[in-house]
Design brief:
Largest sheet: 4 strands, mixed
Number of strands: 4
Oligomer: single chain
Helix content: 55-70%
Number of helices: 15
Strand content: 5-15%
Order of helices and strands: HHEHEHEHEHHHHHHHHHH
Distance between the termini: 42 Å
Shape: elongated
Length: 407
C-alpha cells in the first residue's frame, strides 16, 4: 500500500509540476515581445505577404519587341495574334536587331521575335521557314509566356496555311488534313498553371517550422542569460524532472500553434483561392506528427543557444536552403544524394512533400505513408534528444549549485 501511495504521490507531483512548467513557459512567451513576433506576427504576416506577391499566379502582358524584316501580311498577322494573347504585349516593332537588343538591355522588353526577310516568300514557295525567339532568361516566367504564345500562334497559322494550300472536298477531310492528331493539354492539380498554387503551400509549411525554431531558440537563449548558472533550466523545485519539463514546455507550444496552423494552413489558402482538395481529417492527422517533430526539433536546438540572438544568426538563412532541398522548387529525384539526406534531418522536408500531395493533389494518408512515418520517427528521435539535453542541463545545474554551496 505504501508503494501505491508513493507512486500516486509521484504521479500527482509530476502532473502538477508539468502544469507549473506549462504556465511558466506560457508566461515567458507573452512577456517576451521578440518571441511574440516570431510566434504570432510572423506567421500572420508572412503568409499574407507571399500570397499577395504571387496572387496574379501567372505572368500577363510580358513585354516583347518585334524585328520584322519581312514586312509582309503573314508576318504582321503573326505579330497581331501573338499580341492578342493574354501572355504577351508587343511594345514595339523595330527594323533592325540593334534597336531591339538595346531595348532588351534597358529592360524595356524581355523578348525579341525576329522575322527574316524571306519569311513570307518561303511560305508562298511551299518551303519551310522560321521565326526566331530571343528571350531574357533571367526570368523563366517570361520565357514560358513568350514560348507558349509563339508556339500556339505558329501551330494555328500553320494549320490554316495547310488547309488553304490543300483544298479538299469535305469539311471533315479538311479537319483531318489540318489536325490529323488532335491533342488536349490538361493541367492536373494546378489548373491555372499558377506560381502561387505550387509554391505558397510549401512556404506555409516552412513558416511553421522556422518560427518555432526562432521562437523556442530565443526562449532558450533568454533562459540562459537570466540563469545565474547560465543553464537552460531555472533554479526551481518544479524543474527537477526531465519529462515534466519537456512535456510542459511542448504543451505550451502545441496549444499556441494549433491557432497558428488554422490561420496559416486553412484561412490564408481560402482567402487567396489556393488549391485545397485534401480531406480535413487527413490533413489534421498528417500535421500532428509534423507539429510534434518541429517542436521537439526546436527544443533540441534551443539547448545550444547561448543568447537570445543566437537563433536569428544561425537559422534565419536556412529558410531558402530548406525550401530548395524540400523537392518543390527542384524535383527531389534530381537533388544530389548528400543534400537529399541532409534534408531529412529537418521536419520541413517530409512535411512539405506530404502536405502538398494531400492538400493540392488529394492524396490519402496511405499514399503519403513514407513521409508520415518519417515525421513520427523524427518526432520520437527529437523528443529523446530534447530529454537528453534537459537532463544534462538539470545535472549541470545541480553540480554547479552543489559546488557553490560547498564554497
Amino acid at each position: 500500500m505504501k508503494k501505491e501511495h508513493r507512486l500516486r504521490y509521484i504521479i500527482k507531483e509530476g502532473i502538477l509540476d508539468m502544469f507549473y512548467v506549462w504556465k511558466d513557459e506560457l508566461k515567458n512567451v507573452f512577456k517576451d515581445s521578440g518571441v511574440m513576433i516570431f510566434f504570432f506576427l510572423v506567421p500572420f504576416i508572412y503568409p499574407l505577404l507571399y500570397s499577395f506577391i504571387y496572387n496574379n499566379e501567372v505572368v500577363h502582358e510580358a513585354k516583347m519587341v518585334v524585328v520584322d524584316q519581312s514586312d509582309s501580311y503573314l508576318s504582321r498577322e503573326f505579330v497581331r495574334r501573338v499580341n492578342a494573347t493574354s501572355d504577351v504585349q508587343v511594345v514595339k516593332v523595330c527594323s533592325d536587331m540593334k534597336a531591339a537588343e538595346k531595348m532588351l538591355d534597358e529592360k524595356e522588353a524581355y523578348g525579341i521575335l525576329y522575322f527574316p526577310s524571306d519569311f513570307s516568300k518561303e511560305i508562298h514557295k511551299g518551303n519551310q521557314t522560321e521565326v526566331v525567339l530571343y528571350c531574357d532568361m533571367s526570368s523563366l516566367l517570361f520565357y514560358k509566356a513568350f514560348l507558349l504564345a509563339a508556339t500556339e500562334v505558329s501551330l494555328e497559322l500553320g494549320a490554316e496555311l495547310r488547309a488553304h494550300n490543300n483544298p479538299v472536298s469535305t469539311e471533315k477531310m479538311q479537319e483531318i488534313t489540318v489536325n490529323p492528331i488532335p491533342y488536349e493539354s490538361v493541367a492536373l492539380y494546378n489548373t491555372q498553371n499558377g506560381f502561387a498554387s505550387f509554391l505558397v503551400p510549401a512556404i506555409l509549411i516552412l513558416v511553421i517550422q522556422q518560427t518555432l525554431i526562432l521562437g523556442i531558440g530565443m526562449l532558450g537563449g533568454t533562459a540562459r542569460e537570466k540563469n545565474r548558472f547560465h543553464s537552460l533550466v531555472p533554479v526551481c523545485r518544479h524543474f527537477n524532472g526531465t519529462l515534466r519539463i519537456v512535456l510542459g514546455k511542448s504543451l505550451t507550444y502545441i496549444l499556441l500553434y494549433v491557432v497558428v496552423c488554422i490561420w496559416v494552413l486553412l484561412v490564408v489558402p481560402k482567402l487567396f483561392g489556393l488549391p485545397q482538395v485534401g480531406e480535413g481529417w487527413t490533413i489534421l492527422l498528417f500535421l500532428l506528427p509534423y507539429l510534434f517533430a518541429c517542436i521537439f526539433f526546436s527544443m533540441t536546438l534551443s539547448g545550444f543557444m547561448t543568447s537570445r540572438e543566437s537563433p536569428m544568426m544561425v537559422f534565419v538563412f536556412t529558410s531558402v536552403i530548406l525550401l530548395f532541398i524540400s523537392g518543390v522548387s527542384w524535383p527531389k529525384e534530381a537533388i544530389p544524394p548528400f543534400w537529399k539526406a541532409v534534408g531529412y534531418f529537418f521536419p520541413s522536408t517530409p512535411g512539405i512533400q506530404g502536405f502538398i500531395r494531400i492538400n493540392t493533389c488529394g492524396a490519402t494518408l496511405n499514399e503519403v505513408a513514407h513521409e508520415y512515418h518519417i515525421l513520427w520517427i523524427q518526432a520520437g528521435v527529437y523528443f529523446v534528444l530534447a530529454c537528453v539535453i534537459y537532463r544534462f542541463q538539470i545535472l549541470q545545474r545541480s553540480l554547479l549549485d552543489q559546488a557553490k554551496s560547498d564554497q
